[in-house]
Amino acid sequence: MCESCEGVDLNDPEQRGGGVSRRALLVGTGLGLGLGVLGVGLPAAQAATAKNGKWCNPALGYFPNGGHFGAPRGGVSHAGQDVTNSTGTGVYAAAAGTVIRRQWGGGLTGRTGNGIVLSHGSGLYTYYGHLNAYRVSLNQKVSAGQRIGDMGATGNVTGPHLHFETHNGSLGRVVNPVTFMSGRGVDLGGGWPALDSGASGQRVRAIQHLLNQRGYGLEVDGWLGPTSTNAVKRFQSASGLVADGQVGPKTWPKLVYSLQRGAGGNHVKGLQTALNKRSAGLLVDGDFGSVTNTAVRNFQSTNRLTVDGVAGPITWRALVG
Ligand SMILES: [Zn+2]
């Protein structure tokens, strides 16, 4: 996949993710105190929030052979991670941000095809390449999980896939997207996310609705604060899980319900909230009627899942991943 495109010279310090290595060096040499001035040393609570809850899967798919970060590309290295699925598969913003590029190759050297660059602030950028269609405009603000385009095969490729890059420090400082996303609770390509205490956002709202279906009576404020974390721990204990308060790959499957048309309640509110994270635009009323049914089917179709209108574990995982 990608063939000769998206190669950059990782030996070039401008392309190597210098932000991370320099930070490690500073800490290692006892100069870490200066980092707060650079905006890296966040207070603990903010750091926990930044770490997860704000990042999500840009596309469902698998990693093709040779599509990994750093793979040799005609003398240079693959600058991203390829995620393969069919043309038209939804491509979503990995985090909230602003569309700063929407052009061939994202305006980045060596990249080809329709590309989008999102700026997430704090020197973080993501790039989405080979898109079949754009679903956002230049300078548009996007939320995490909002649909920004369709997977495609534009540019120098052998088949449809998303070429996904993560830049840390400044635009051009590419870092391994798999480890970058993993450090933010996301299993790139698909998989349950890991949300720790302190996380916030739509998925936390979904979790609170799902817990309320079981009678926990939580305020749905989208924050995994002490009260909600305690509820997660109690749910984990009651479900035979380790009560660590983290909603991760073991907790999610026990937490979600298999839902279809006719269902009603807080669990449906959780589903509607999760669908909204993926741009469904539903009224969160807890009623699984025709509108929610259509939204589930559209999401399944867009993500190449079985289109049956049943929100089971696989659909849930794709929604919240
Ligand atoms: Zn690629």
Automatic annotation (TrEMBL):
Matches recorded under InterPro entries: Cell_wall_metabolism_enzyme (IPR050570), Dup_hybrid_motif (IPR011055), M23ase_b-sheet_dom (IPR016047), Peptidoglycan-bd-like (IPR002477), PGBD-like_sf (IPR036365), PGBDSf (IPR036366), TAT_signal (IPR006311)
Name the record gives this protein: Metalloendopeptidase-like membrane protein
Residue ranges of domain Peptidoglycan binding-like in the record: 200-254, 265-319
Organism lineage string: Bacteria, Bacillati, Actinomycetota, Actinomycetes, Pseudonocardiales
Domain of life: Bacteria
Spans through the membrane: none
GO MF annotations in UniProt: metalloendopeptidase activity
Domain M23ase beta-sheet core: residue ranges: 77-176
Organism: Saccharomonospora azurea NA-128
